[in-house]
Every structure is written in structure tokens, then in C-alpha cells.
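Supplementary Note 2. Why include the ligand at all?

Several targets in our set were suspected to adopt different conformations when bound, so apo predictions alone were not considered sufficient. For every target with a known small-molecule partner we therefore ran a joint prediction. The input for zinc ion is given below.
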Amino acid sequence: MVLHQGEEFSGIVVSKRDYKERDLLVKILTNRYGYKTFYIRGAKKRGFRLGAIILPFSHGRYLGSINDDGLSYLSTGKEIDQYQNIFNDIMLNAYASYVLGLGEAAIKDDCILASQWYRKIERALQLIDQGVNPLIIVSIMEIQMLELFGVAPEWRFCAVCGNQRSSFDYSESYGGILCKNHWHLDPNRLHLDEKTMYFLRYLSDIDLDVLKSVNLSEKTSIKIKRALDVIYDDQVGLYVPAKKFLNEMTSFDFAFEKGLDKTE
Ligand SMILES: [Zn+2]
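The joint prediction is reproduced in C-alpha cell form.
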């Protein structure tokens, strides 16, 4: 067990839960150590001095002692802000929780992955907080995080012939996309329509830092989501609690059934 004292890091408060009578365990995504759980002693006492910096969806700079294996400790925070809209809106809350849950499943406490992905997760929450279509932000994170789960589809060209200009479909068994000439090789391809495929490929390469807004119909957003649900179910097999809640909240299934057979 190694305790790194007096460490400064960027962080986003992921969740907190009661611990003993007066204490809390607060999970924070940090940019240097990944997801760490902090033991906050006396947190439930009135006027507790760290109360404001451990509110849900707070983010900023933190100081503390990081434990490699067990619980870490928080001393103070500065320039702490909160994603207010996410905090106040139950739907945005669900989307943001899912992004953080997905990140946790992928990054855990891996320092290198944390340094690579912290900024993207932070930016995703920022965009959700600003009101950019949260379904698309979640889809972008899902597509781009596939590689962290050992699934790294090649979205740019056909897995068989390298063709970059064609109609494409996604093939799980080929681990990428197939051009129309090679669809016959995989009868179990996902049978995605051209528009959904176009946006999956487009979103796989989009830079969240330069993204300002997304102009996609709800129907297309949902089709993209459903395609990613299939890929995640079949190829990743991940269970993130927030996803179930998100699905229930939005009744995607119903909307999808209604919209599936009509072309746009
Ligand atoms: Zn091909």
C-alpha cells in the first residue's frame, strides 16, 4: 500500500455513499489516478468544511492523499464548479451518470488511461450540461470507448477489400464494416441503413473538443443508439447500472419500434 501525499489533481465527483455514522465515501474520477474512492471523515456534520466540493457532479482541482490500493483522502479543493443542469435535470443526470459509469468500467484506476480519457469525459459532461443532444454525446463516447473494451472496429474502410466509398454495413464477425460487395460474406451483419452507418462512421472520428452542437433527428439518434446497444451487448457484454435506468427513462424501445420502418 502506497500513499501519495499532497497530490493535486483535476476531478469530477461521480457518486457518494454513507459510511459509518457521520462519514462518507466519495468516488471521484481523477485525471491522474482514474476512479478513486475518498474517505471523508465527519462529512455529515453540520457546516462540514468540505461539503461544497463533494456535491454530485462537482468538478475542479483537488488536493489530497492518493492510496494505490485502498481509500484515499481529500484535503481541499479549489476552482470547484458544478454541472448545474446535470445536477438539476433527472434525464441529463442519467446520461451523465452513464458516461461516468462507462468511463469507470473502462478506465478503473489506470493512470495512463485516466490521463488519456479524463479530458474527453469532462468535455462530454460539459456538452451535456450545455444542452447538446445527450443521446449523441453518449453515442460518441460509446463508439470511441469501444477500443478500451478490446473492440476496435475499423470504421474507415471495408474489412475485406479496403473500399472507402460504398454503402456499408457493420459486421460483428469481421470486427468492422463491410462494403456492399462483401455483404454476402456475413448474413448476420447488423443490416443498418445508410444514414445510420454514415453517422456511426462520422461520430467514431469526431473530436469532442471542437464539437459545438449536433443537428440530428431523434429518430436517427435512436437508431445510432440501438446499433451501439447491439454492439455493446454482443461484443462488450458490459453492465453499467445507469444504462438500465436510462433505457427505462426514455422508453427508447417504443420510439424505435415506431420509427424503424419509415425512411427519412
Ligand atoms: Zn469490400
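The chain has two domains: 3-82, 87-154+180-259. The CA atoms of residues 58 and 82 lie 4 Å apart. Comparable summaries for the other entries are listed in the accompanying table.
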